[in-house]
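We include the pair:
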Amino acid sequence: MPAQLEQPSSEQLAKIVEAYLADHPAAAVLEDGRVIFDMRTAHYSIGESHGRCLVQFWSEERNLMRSVSGVEQRAQCLRLATRKMGVTRPQMIELVPNSDRRTPTARDTARRNYMHQLERVLTRAFIGSKVDGMRSAMDLEHSFGPAYVRGRLLHGTGAEAVIGVGSAESAAIIDGVLTLGILWLDYCRQHADARRHFGGLKVVVPAGAWRVTAERMAWLNHAAANFELYTLDERSEELAQVDFRDTGNLDSRLVHAFSAEAARERCRSGIERLFDLVPEGARGRIEVCPRSATEVALVLHGLEFARVRHGASATSFARVEEISFGAGANEAVLTEENEELARELFGRLFLGRHPDGSRNDALFRLQPERWLESRLRTRMEEIFPAFNRDLYYTQVPALSTGDRGMLDLLTLDREGRLTVMELKADEDLQLPLQALDYWVRVRALNADRAMQNGQMRSAFERQGYFEDVAVSERSPRLVLVAPALRVHPANETVLKYLAPEVEWELVALGEQWRRELKVVFRKRGGA
């Protein structure tokens, strides 16, 4: 029997919506079965007016404001009974974990059809080899999910592992195929008959969706296995091999470094106004973090809860200051009318977001990687004695491919060598290859050297990073940091297949990292 609509208070309604969006950062908002907001790029605001819970969603395409009168919680979704302003008839909007709106039956049918098609195409393309054991069944023990079709190509005593992904899957799933392919190859090798040798892996991706996989495949250890990449046009059933060693220029961007002190000074009046709204005695817990030359954020344990932007007026040449508040995608412009709402939010934030806070609190759970980053920045030299704690940059824009536009931490060791640091507070199967994306681009930017002031300098130096410190020409280090019990069991398997040139270190921390940073183990690989 379906759950009935509850009638909680407006405050309870706001907390339910906030908790759902905190737990599902890639959520989508649906109306009449259609995705109207993708919360990876949209924003929202929740407030109370005359005893009503008001929710607003907005993006570059549209804006929606409704009052919420009830909720219906289902296994994966949250349905909201809402009303437009001036309209009495309720309308339902739905919050779902992601934007994939295929029904389970349609999704399973598409994947089954793709599996049969891939088997047919491989049989035609590799005459003399036998296509064997094609499957897409879930295997949680070995991290295999139903989105990927895996199998084997057998030829005599030799064999190759094969994995493919269909065009109906999301970009994130398609980009993740190489991780699963490496795990499948490793599984085949471990479970093979002693007389059969698995020499390599063939990866099949949709036509036009090969670049991320190609860039990653170029930095695998090709002495350990023969890796091949193919695209499949599902309409024509044409299979084409991709030369992943020639992927062209990497689409990287590096903004010019700015003066953090000048940004703080420029936004000082707005910062002081926000400080007047935080609980008494809490100022010492706040980090003032410049995000650009004209924007400064107020941060508590890695969570940005307010910001000051200094920019040009839309109606004159004067400079104007915009102050906003809200955590995560929840953002509202600060006005005299909502100052008390901001004060209340700040009070809740400082009450719940501390090392001994409750995991049931949405504000405690938000953005754990940023919390971990803030802890590492303050204890950098204790955890990494070779690093200089004064020489680091956070959230550096170094990527243009996919959705991952920022690397977590970029720093130098005492010899001037770059280090790319990627942090995870929860298990992430894709951690090694996502971190490799950043490493590849940082390496390319460091290798991009040109004459400046009579010296050959990297792109980082020319753009004002690490002022007055020479950046070594050596390839960067790659450091992965996660709590020990949150390191995905498959991460080490993937790491061992990286090219020897990728010098990596896996650092596992104690589970109580919010209170005490303690290294449980370290593992290293590469050159």
